[in-house]
Design a protein that fits this description.
The structure is a homotetramer of 331-residue chains. By secondary structure, the first copy, chain A, is α/β, with parallel strands linked by helices. The first copy, chain A, has a single domain, classed as Divalent-metal-dependent TIM barrel enzymes (TIM Barrel, Alpha-Beta Barrel). Helices cover 41% and strands 17% of the residues of chain A. Chain A has an eight-stranded parallel beta barrel, surrounded by six helices. Chain A has a two-stranded antiparallel ribbon with strand order 2-3. In chain A, helix 8 links the parallel strand 11 and strand 12. The longest helix of chain A has 22 residues. Chain A is globular. Chains A and B meet through helix 4, helix 5, helix 7, helix 8 and helix 11 of A and helix 4, helix 5, helix 7, helix 8 and helix 11 of B.
Chain lengths: 331, 331, 331, 331
């Protein structure tokens, strides 16, 4: 197992707001400054960018600043939510012209990614879905989405297309809502460069066990990208990793190792009120701490424990590591 | 579109209890009496049975009583929760002997169903899943389950195998949790007599839109059976149909019509404190009321509305029917 | 029981956006235009305003336009979320200067309300609460909030102070989260012009039964104001009234009648993608439909039903009204 | 701060089942054996009993076995769910005879508690609430409950009456659902020996922050008893402490220390499939581990951190303790 590579998204230095404070808790920085600041976060060597929003300075300038700052562009996301035109969907819009525009934007994103040396794009179709009952023709929406996705994938077989599922938000119900809905959608394209982005918070919000979602995607060779954050399960709170959960996140890193995931660990948080660098840095350190804990517990110990029905011995072993009793000499 | 056929399950007259009252709010009746009482519920012409629990009097006696009471046996469910042996799973148990026993039980259930004239069995694997993090080898569980399911389906191609998904309960996390997880599992068996049972309450609990789940299964020719009830979304409350929701249930019957579903509408409720016949009868009348409402609104009106993004005109039209203004002359 | 009075908030014509589209799905209109358009919504005779956001044209101009458009100002809300200064709270901020500023703003709001003929202000402290564990000193936060609230109430006994609770959003956890937390807070001020605003969606999100929350507040003489909308229970979706629920909303209007609530029915929705007037108008018509249904069923029928444990007879009676069987002649 | 005292409930050795397995995953033991086994769990010195279920051998025999096994009876719970008579409520039943019976049972429980040397009883009114809309007269239910509770409290001022709130289950909606609803109810009795039992899982299920609920009750001098367990937030899963959460549980023990809680830490779990002693023992060790962690981090460190808005420095400090980096020498 090679070194784990950490990345984060340019949006951590964007104008972070909510529906009650559209002006933002903080003003977004220009993209050059964002890259520079991200490169200074301890442990982060990759950057996740958004097309076209992040590219207004020209792709050459972007390439230069990444070079200078020593950052790898690990993936480029297509922005399918940041324009009111997408309000009723992108790949599944009733409007053929909009579907076309969404495909074109995705193709441009693939090219931009390739130029920056990234081998994959991220498609998070936040506006594809519905808000009200009786608002969508679900079968047709699915077919339109599937067809656009297949077309995008066919454009450049050298670029992987990662579909990021999410239960809801901004639409009340998403078209690509759960890990298995995403997997079905990808499979129905018939393309072999289409897979899934797991976002830890989306998985928690959907009531999934993250490690199980990883294992299922691994069976299908579809685990393409990973977003890390934390939440209270009911919503995509995009909090600092480890601020709420621990055991399930440890199980997640175990699953990532077992399945041989060798992609990026991208910290995708929304630091509404927090310092972005501090929040990302703490997230990275938490994941590194989990990896060290995994080493101390031992993969083979976990493998052996999973041969039994009873979960308590392993939980007990983990507890000994994270919460040593006062009398226990440190390991 | 033919006449809608309503059924209900024998468990409505079982010992209905909860973890705090294992003795039950009411004592279960013998199976002959259950069948008789179910046959007397207005509108109900089908019965859903459980194997082996309901068959202790011998299958001939069951056949006779169904004949006498004029009930069709629409489906037989394999009981994979009512014995502590299944506590860590059935088709996905770590114990090969238990997996074998679960398969055998399913094969017997198929034969019993065929004898009673039913062409399908229901598999609700309530104990397959996990409670704690680090308690399951998810990939192996999936494979064991898939393999057993395929074997069962291969036994009798004339019997359809319906897999009923549920997010959770009794396990904290189910293996077959959502509509698309069920669809993926069924597809991976490679058998064409394996499909999905949608339980309305399970769909609500999983955060799905029921009509969308129906449409997706229809695309895959996998909508095999239907359980009707209602809940507050957070749990499988198994309440009387229509006691909480209306618009989404109307959308559900519209989806069932559009997809040409011609199976049973089986009322699957848990009348903890209510009279079973009254609770099922009211559920049937509610669904019949929805179908009449669908006629009044008109499928073509809905078809046309779904060509538009705006949901309000159709919601408004539905409201005019269910909540006519005092001044409005009745339609 | 007098005529029901409907209002709506000026924000329906504001820049409605979300965290992914801070620029908004639609641009906000100026306040004069908002008032004019609201006055044209059928059935709406009241307007709910926000201080200071809506008052930039001067209070005299506001008064004039309300006069001209025939709108009553029913309540004025203090804006405690629209400025990043409040990001860690207003009345419960650690910063005394900010607490002072929040109090001053509330006092100004009271005066503005009085000038416009409104006898109450609304305090929705969206930023008071916390996001992370270990982020708040809960007891101190409570005390600071209580003390500021008491001070505000003491400023003008002729103006009622309405505290609007909400489980979460924008903070992950709100200080004033549930109906009983709000009631406790109000009671601890010791002031008799402090009460509670029930927002239907907030009540659903908190897992409450709305009618029960109304009944509890009525016992304490604390039901001061009412916001109407709908959602899927997991989040404050601010949807058109009746687009998801019906029976519980009918129970709500029954509870409002029984308790003699004579305040405004204020439609508080967020028409992200919908036409604001259409969405509010449909909401008003839905509530009027509920009131007509209540008349048809009869309060005394409900009173009598509530003497029994069994809920089915009344649910059945309601169903007969909303979903008459085809054979039934219309009432 | 004295030594922390741990207890657990006799139900861990009861017939633990669910609605699909009323016969239980395991058969209950007789009460003498339960006490004996509980006394052997490392770290447990107290027992929580249920009246009348646990007292069939006579109170003298109970007293003897507690004596012999060295267990303190910390509290006795009134069983208001284990008999179908309570199916529509106990203190809030429409049936005066049932309310009377519930009061009498509570008085007997107080006397039994006193005989065993316990100074408090627990009232968890699981059946008080409703399942369906329009099933309860909420104001009357509240008043009946309040009145019975006050009467019980008046019987013996030397015995504390602890009301345990829970959002739901077995009823779909509980009358005493949240910490503040419980506090309001207690306060309305006007008695000063009435307070609240916080069950960690109930608090999580209700969307509360446990430490905040502790702080609020402390303000009212109403934190009377504590039940420890864990869950996934959506349901009262009654899992081993620490199997899901950590940071919020650490915040909880901090809050318990700060408020000077000197009562029992009672492990209230439901070991459906687990060995009861192992599950309770692991829970105790986890809490002891949290207390040791609290010592290492230092209360004063936390106190100081709570003077700031930013949560990250303290989360970072906690992470250093639980997940030390490989390079870090252990503290």
């Amino acid at each position: 197992m090679g070194e784990i590579k950490f990345a984060t998204g340019t949006w951590i230095y964007g104008t972070v707001g909510d529906r009650y404070l559209l002006g933002g808790y903080r003003q977004g920085l220009d993209i050059i400054e964002r890259a520079k600041l991200i490169s200074e976060i301890d442990g982060v060597t990759g950057i996740e960018m958004i097309y076209p929003a992040d590219f207004y300075v020209g792709i050459d300038s972007i390439g230069e600043v990444l070079n200078l700052s020593g950052l790898d562009c690990c993936i480029v996301g297509v922005d399918l939510t940041g324009d009111p035109a997408w309000r009723y969907g992108s790949f599944s819009s009733r409007d053929e012209a909009l579907r076309r525009r969404a495909v074109e934007l995705s193709l441009e994103t693939m090219d931009a990614a390739a130029t920056l040396g990234a081998d994959r794009i991220n498609i998070w179709p936040g506006e594809d879905g519905h808000d009200y009952p009786f608002q969508a023709d679900y079968s047709r929406s699915w077919e339109w989405f599937r067809s656009c996705l297949a077309e995008v994938a066919g454009h450049r077989p050298d670029i992987k297309v990662c579909v990021e599922y999410k239960l809801r938000e901004p639409r009340n119900r998403s078209l690509v809502a759960t890990v298995c809905k995403a997997a079905l959608m990808c499979r129905e394209t018939g393309m072999d460069n289409v897979g899934v982005t797991i976002d830890v918070g989306h998985s928690l919000q959907a009531g999934e066990n993250i490690a199980e979602s990883i294992a299922l995607l691994d069976r299908l060779d579809m685990l393409y990208h990973l977003h890390l954050n934390d939440n209270y399960r009911g919503w995509d709170d995009d909090m600092v990793v480890g601020s709420v959960h621990l055991v399930e996140l440890l199980e997640m890193v175990y699953a990532l190792r077992k399945t041989g995931y060798d992609g990026w660990y991208s910290i995708d948080i929304y630091p509404y009120r927090e310092d972005p660098a501090a929040a990302v840095g703490e997230s990275v350190r938490f994941v590194k701490g989990l990896l060290a804990l995994l080493d101390r517990v031992g993969e083979e110990t976990i493998d052996a424990a999973l041969e039994q029905d009873d979960p308590i011995p392993l939980l007990s072993r983990i507890r000994e590591e994270i919460l040593p009793a006062p009398a226990d000499p440190p390991a």
